[in-house]
Design brief:
alpha+beta; 5-stranded antiparallel β-sheet; 97 residues
Length: 97
């Protein structure tokens, strides 16, 4: 019985990884060997609470306007989540000139 409880507890802990807090950044590009970031950076984001209320604009156009960028060279996406999405923020970061 103790082995079964230990096994179940271990599996439960492994399945809950990154559910309490998630903070990641991923590139929105497939050719990362030849990426040039550019001189300017802009960021835009949207936020959500409980998946019921959300606000903001995480589009690339809004991020480019934030950084005064006219030519995009690269983009990243950042995701921050707390307690299974009780609070969620998704940001788009763009680089260019």
């Amino acid at each position: 019985m103790k082995k079964a409880l230990l096994c179940f507890s271990s599996l439960a802990c492994l399945s809950l990884q990154s559910c309490v807090l998630t903070n990641i950044q991923v590139p929105l590009d497939t050719d990362l060997q030849n990426t040039e970031l550019g001189e300017k950076t802009g960021e835009s984001s949207f936020q959500s609470v409980l998946g019921l209320v959300s606000w903001g604009n995480a589009g690339t156009q809004a991020a480019a306007a934030d950084g005064g960028i006219t030519t995009l060279t690269h983009a990243d996406q950042k995701i921050f989540s707390v307690l299974w999405g009780v609070y969620y923020r998704q940001s788009t970061v763009v680089y260019g000139n």
